Here is the input.
Amino acid sequence: MDGPHQGQQLATGGTPLEEAEAAMILVHGRGATAESILQMGRQLHEDGVALLAPQAARNTWYPNSFLEPVESNEPGRSSGLQAIADALGEANDAGIPTGKVMILGFSQGACLGSEFVARNPRRYGGHVAFSGGLIGETVDPDEFEGSLEGTPSFVGCSDVDPHIPEERVHVTTEVLEQLDADVEERIYPGMGHGVNDDEVEYVSGMVADLVADED
Here is the structure.
């Protein structure tokens, strides 16, 4: 498709793609940049992992809350999903299989990344949602079909996040588990909207596992 986010720069970091054994696609939040989420990726990085971060036009993937009707966030939502697909294609073209690609997002990026994985089920190297959930006014688990084939998934959020209702986090986990993901959900009392050290530690282990069987 040719949407608002197509033709934007794909920021890169970590191990050069042509030398990498695995990759992380990092999806930034509302008002942020690809470079800012690359900084988070560098905190989690392991040798052998390429970092790929698509950039949203005007730094925002879709205009309204992810809890609004899906149509109100088009074409941004679909264009953002395509940006993730394009980054995945870059990794695949470099010889990195999808089973070695982790999709990680924060906030709006976590919503978009979760939506991508749930709507395109297959075995991924991993899925991480820092403070996010599936997109839509409501989420019906019966609408999702297919298998994530045991993809390791981390879903972390505060119980009082001002943007992400706890119930949407639980429904997101339910859908991912229904799609055969291996989900670790962690709810943090009183945290607010951010990423904490416990989350960084857990996800760093997931990233290490991406290349562990290559050592």
Notes: The helical segments are 34-44, 76-93, 108-119, 166-178, 197-212. The chain is about 35% helix and 20% strand. The mean pLDDT is 96.
